[in-house]
Amino acid sequence: MEDIRQxxxxxxxxxIRKVLGGxxxxxxxxxxxxxxxxxxxxxxxxxxxxxxxxxxTKKRFVFVVDITAxxxxxxxxxxxxxEYNVPDGNYRTWVERYIIDDHDDxxxxxxxxxxxxxxxxxxxxxxxTRDTFFVPKLCNMxxxxxxxxxCPVGATYKTGDGFVLVDKTRCVGxxxxxxxxxxxxxxxxxxxxxxxxxxxxxxxxxxxxLPACVSVCPTQxxxxxxxxxxxxxxxxxxxxxxxxxxLKPDMGNQPALHYVGLRREVV
Amino acid sequence: xSVGVHHAEGxxxxxxxxxxxxxxIHWSLMIVLYPYITGIVAGAFIVSSLYHVFGIRDLKxxxxxSLIFALAFLCCAxxxxxxxxGHPERAFSMFxxxxxxxxxAGFGYIYTAYLILLVHEILxxxxxxxxALWQQSKGIMRGIYAxxxxxxxxxxxxxxxxxxxIINFLAGIGIPMACVLHGYVGFIFGGIKxxxxxxxxxxxxxxxxxACVSGIAGIIFSYMLIKKFSGGTIDxxxxxxxxxxLWGFFILDFVFExxxxxxxxxxxxxxxxxxENLLWGPLYTTYWxxxxxxxxxxxxxxxxxxxxxxxxxxxxxxFAPIVSLMxxxxxxxxxxxxxxxxxxxxxxxxxxxxxxxxxxxxxxxIAAIIVMTAPLxxxxxLSRIFPLWIHEEQPQET
Lengths: 267, 398
Ligand code: SF4
Ligand code: SF4
Known about the structure:
Number of helices of chain A: 7
Structural class of chain A: alpha+beta
Largest sheet of chain B: 2 strands, antiparallel
Number of strands of chain B: 2
Number of strands of chain A: 11
Largest interface: A-B, 49 and 43 residues
Bound molecules: iron/sulfur cluster
Strand content of chain A: 15-25%
Order of helices and strands of chain B: EHHHHHHHHHHHHHEH
Oligomer: heterodimer
Radius of gyration of chain A: 25 Å
Number of domains of chain A: 3
CATH topology of the largest domain in chain A: Alpha-Beta Plaits
Structural class of chain B: mainly alpha
Strand order of the largest sheet of chain A: 9-1-11-10
Strand order of the largest sheet of chain B: 1-2
Helix content of chain A: 10-25%
Order of helices and strands of chain A: HEHEEEHEEHEEHHEHEE
């Protein structure tokens, strides 16, 4: 009886010790940063990015959208909404559906920004469809952005490596930038009452990962990469004979977002 | 904001495509009022300068009143902006850390400079009056008047002459500043290349001219109204001259407004296709019917008759307030059509939205009415301190 009791006591003590130890160790883990080697490392998606130590990289990022590849599944929009918790009715990125009928009339729509995917054909059009395609839209990361030009407090600005970002702690919510962007990619977030837009997932890119929409696109219609890297896919696309163009070139904004197979119907 | 994508019958609505973010109207009633109020300020100042700088003696009876009127509106010029901002508590950053390339960042500076100038101009013009009132009044008012006359009761010839020089100087730089204040507001819109309705170098000019027009009309209307209710006599010569100026400025204003549309039509670039759909679409009633046909053509003809035909005083006094009120409505409609109209067409160039302002809320109709009534209340308070009319005070005159 005595031995049994002793054994139980010992077990109890050991148990309490273990629990305490585990709790303390667990809490310590929360406060003490883990050595880098211990972190689960996701394979780098942008070559050389994780070795970058400078505040601004020397890379020259471009975004390429291949219109001929987009199937209008809306995965990118879903990923984007999840990544940023975008409020309903506002869009950091969206996918448009173009339909050209045999009278050469053009019909464009983007119900819910394409979030639900284009599962059903468009109804009610008066003539048979001749051609149809999808066009994803996002921030053009203009070389000469009109949004940063007009912001009265400099809350929207261009980083040293070419990203146009919004500092929501400085934004006064005047909407001037929303008016100034020729591509309508900006909106005022109803919760924060500040301007918001696509950032090309700056936080991911800085860690060497591709933008969320790029990594989920099943057909690789969205591509992202460094133009200074002659091995990158984007370099090849922009330097080989492809039909490549930008949106609204006459605005003079010089977008860093390029479209492969851009059609004249697209605005 | 209740904005609905228009669903007209048939193909039209099928072809109507608005960028998903373009269904929101971000600049609503408050941004309509903002240029309206600054315009009235600039216009009223110009009325007073016509007397003080250009020596149009007929305008003497309203020369002081128009300055106080301008000040009352200037006090409220920032209200609509603050009501509009998502974070008004950060508004001061526009002063502290302005972005030099932003058209909007200059507003704080221009506004403040203009406010300082206007207040000084008023104080110098009123100094003899303030000194007289200082001597007469008692208690707290005595202190106020002493302060407003810079605690200086020297009304000697030399000192009045010096005052006069200062007034001329202030009025002289006041004119270009009033023009800058409002031309600049036009530039806030005119500099937005993304918007084909706004992006025209004519925008500052049109804004400036319509500012003069609304200022003069506001002065005529309120002058007659105040006189009517306070039982004073209306100076008909002054009204006649003001109407002439109103007509003159309105000719320029209206012609430029029409020329702008006509030039777009004549050039027929791809922008025209967008503007055409806008002007004959969601903007048809407020632009063509109200702004152009009712509130421009009719006052235009009326003003022409009032200025060119020899009419009895009675008729002038009957039509002057009507015409002025119509002109005030015209300018308000013009602001609406520019500010709201510009946002009704999507950057997709393929569609438009419709907009109905809401009643409640920071940018609703009720707030707008309050913002527009506030200057009148301020004007009333100011009139308790500054006698609006020259004959109300002691023999001193400027
Ligand atoms: S697309 Fe619009 S928001 Fe993006 S950088 Fe260009 S102007 Fe700015
Ligand atoms: S809404 Fe914010 S980011 Fe945009 S212009 Fe105004 S202050 Fe700048």
